[in-house]
Structure formats: structure tokens, C-alpha cells
Amino acid sequence: MLMRTDPFRELDRLTQQVLGTSARPAVMAMDAWRTGDEFVVEFDLPGVDPDSVELDVERNVLTVRAQRPVHEGTAEMIAAERPRGVFSRQLILGDNLDTEKITAGYRSGVLTLRVPVAEKAKPRRIAVQDHEKRHESPQAIGS
Q1: pTM attached to this predicted model
Q2: 76 phi and psi angles, rounded to 5 deg
């Protein structure tokens, strides 16, 4: 069996234990895809209280913030591999998305955002008019 060791991960873990902070920013894993006329984005946030989740949109930047509580008290941590504290991630949304109609839901540790495509960005059919028929007089048609 091949095992890889990451000396920096161990250093980060030790620094976190000594200082009580995370040396590396916590990762908020994400999947995103388009289905029909909307984009769906899912963030893995297990153990996060939904009330701690904040979503902000400024212009075309969506910011997601969440917090997983830090263990406090007299308990001695034996292993602390799950990141704790504040998580933050920003997404740049295209101009073709309707930021006014973003919806969010949280279920089983997954935050799901639905971002609809703006009406102005949806493909639309343009009717072609026959200008020859339009400019003929009724008498000219019957002759």
C-alpha cells in the first residue's frame, strides 16, 4: 500500500491546535451545472447551522458565508481534521443571469442555489415579415 504524507498538512494541524486557528482557509466544496433555463450551484456545508449562512449579491458577485462552530470548553480534542470557523466563497455571475430571482435552500448539509437565466438572455424567435405583400395594394393583388 502506498501512503503519501503531507508535511505541510501536519504543520497546519499542529498550528491550528496550538493557536486555535486555521492556517489554511477552509474549503467550501462546490458543484455547478446548467439545467434548462437555470444554473444550479451546490455547496457542501455539513454541520453548519442554516441560520449562520449568509448570501449577498453585489452587482454580479455572489458571496456565500457560513460558520461551523468551534468546540469550546474543557474537552480535549483527540483529532481535529474538519475545518471550523467561517467559510466564505465568491462567485462571479454572468450578465445573462437574473440575480434578483436567486433562490436558496439547505438540506442534509447541502446549500443549493438556483440562479435563473435572465429573460433578455433567453433565445427568442423573431418573426420574418414579407415586405412585398405588405406594400401591395388590394387592387394589385386581384389583377
Answers
A1: 0.65
A2: -95, 120
- For 124-135, the pLDDT digits (tens) are 788 888 877 765
**Considering just the CA atoms, what is the radius of gyration of the chain in Å?**
27
Q: Which of these ranges, 32-36, 59-63, 138-142, has the smallest mean pLDDT?
A: 138-142
- Amino acid 143 reads S
- Alpha-carbon span 28 to 91, nearest angstrom: 12
Helix (H, G, I), strand (E, B) or coil at 62: strand
Residue 100 grid coordinates: 434578483
C-alpha cell at 69: 462552530
User: Cα separation of 119 and 72, whole Å?
Assistant: 49
Cβ atoms of 12 and 27 within 8 Å: the answer is no
- CATH 1.10.1420.10, domain 10-142, yes or no: no
Q: Is 19 helix (H, G, I), strand (E, B) or coil?
A: helix
